[in-house]
Each structure stands twice: as C-alpha cells, then as structure tokens.
Amino acid sequence: MTTYCKAGLALAVLLAVSSNLLAQQDMGKGLDSIKVVAPGATLRQVSSQFTFTEGPAVNKKGDIYFTDQPNDKIWRYDTDGKLSLYMDKTGRSNGLYFDKKGNLISCADEKDELWSISPDKKITVLLANFQGQRMNGPNDLWIDPKGGIYFTDPYYQRDYWERKKPDIDGQKVYYLPKGKQEAVLVDGDLKQPNGIVGTPDGKFLYVADIRDSKTYKYQINADGTLSNRQLFIPQGSDGMTLDSQGNLYISGRGVTIYSPAGVKLGNIPIPSRWVGNVCFGGKDRKLLFITASESVYTLPMQVKGVE
C-alpha cells in the first residue's frame, strides 16, 4: 500500500510538471505568434506579494512605479530589475503618470483628488473637487504634451469611504489644463470610463468604457476638448498603453493588442485573475510591465513604448 501511494504521488507530480511545461510551451507558441513580442520571449513573474496592483508609470530613466492600492503603497521596479517600496500612505493612489518635471501625478481616491508627488515626495493637491462636488474617484490618467491632465472618474465603492453613493451624477472624463485648478468635462456620456491613454503627438485620445465593453477614439482639439468620438473596438479595458507603432494594449483578461486600425494582433495570457494595467519600461522602453492582481510580470518586446 505504501509503495502504491508513493508511486501514485510520483505519477501525480510527474503529470502536474508535464502539464505545466506543456502550458508554458503553449504560451510560448502563442507569444511567438504576436509580432510585437520579442522572439523567444517568456513571461516572467517579478513578485506575487501584493493585494491588487495598478497604475504602472515609467520615468525618464525607465524605472517603473506602480501601486498596491488596498495596501496604500507605491512600489518601484528599476532598470536593474530591483523591486523596492517607494512610498507608504499614498492617498490610496491608483493610476499614475510622470510629468515632464519628474513629478509623479496620482489619482488619489482616498479623498478623490489628483496629487503631484515630487521626487522628494512632497505632495501637492492639484484638484480637490469638480465645481464644488467631490469627484467619484479619479482612476486613470494621461498627460498631454502641453502638460494638461485627462482623467477618468468612475465610481467604485471603497471600503475606506464613509459615503455610500456618489456626489456627482454620472461617470465621466475630465481635463485639467496645466496650471489650472478647475477641471473641464470632456465626455459625460459613458457608463463607466476607466483606462485612458493618448498619442504622443497629442492628437488623439483613447478611453475605455469598461461597463459598456467599448473603447473609443477621440480627436483632441487645441483647447483640450474632445470631438469626433468613434468606436475603436468593442472591448473595454481597465488600463491601456501604446507602443511606437501606434498599437494599443488593453488590460483585463490578459493583455490584448490592437493595431492602429483596430485589428486584433493577439492576446498575452496572464496567469492571474485580472490584469489591472500595463506600461512599457526599461532603459530601452522595450520591457512590457504588467500589473495583475497579486502579481507583477514582465515581457520583452520588439517594440518600444511611447510614455
């Protein structure tokens, strides 16, 4: 009986290992079929010590900063592959983005504000409300070439809030012009906007309406307003980024990549329950960094990021 149990256990272990190797091989084959992924590249799990990771942003050096929002922390993954805690007590930061001066701009939804965190970690509140009303919960953002901030403001009930309903009717997209203290409503006709990113020339903006499973493309006008809204793809997203070829990367069930024409190039499967966001980093900007629930992953790419 003992011999049989040991043999059975050994067989189970062998089958599990074989199954895992086959899964990795299948993933590898799948990744090789996506033209923007580096040949032979494999997905690497950097760490799984978090609760829910979000908001990756890259600085000028290529270091990546991201949030673990339930634990109210910002982490850094540097170009040498070192992971370290950057900041504790972050105002429940979610989406992040670096401005041209190296300040880390944050969607801090503990009090539903936009923050600027300087390199020496001095905090400046850029936006505290909209026309005197508390925001729903700034979620994701993108900074245009002029220094203006586009951000989404969906409502996700937080357990650290005392309120149980939003002050503002509807879930919308706003623009905060550089140097201003009052935001401008740029699209109020969405169910639940979430991921957002713009082209580096400042001409177009992508916004995901995650509840409606749609992603829109807008033309950005000279005054920062939006026009010519068009359905780009019938898929929503939690977070988004662009590469140097204009391909759009959207998160959720893995990372799905679309060409500038909206043609699906492929899906990068991620072994976590949900992918919150994605960005490019590294010294050459060719490392795809993926925040996925309890984990963060990296994947070498053939293309560069533009953020």
UniProtKB/TrEMBL annotation:
**For this UniProt entry, which residues form the secretion signal?**
1-23
Note the SUPFAM superfamilies from the entry. Answer: Calcium-dependent phosphotriesterase (SSF63829)
Which InterPro entries does the entry mention? 6-blade_b-propeller_TolB-like, SGL, SMP-30/CGR1_Lactonase
> Domain of life, per the record?
Bacteria
List each copy of the SMP-30/Gluconolactonase/LRE-like region domain by range.
Answer: 52-293
Which controlled-vocabulary keywords does the entry list? Hydrolase, Signal
In its keyword annotation, does this UniProt entry include Hydrolase? Answer: yes
Q: Which GO terms describe its molecular function?
A: hydrolase activity
Q: Which PANTHER family match?
A: LACTONASE DRP35, LIPOPROTEIN-RELATED
Record-given protein name: SMP-30/gluconolactonase/LRE family protein
Which organism encodes this protein? Spirosoma telluris
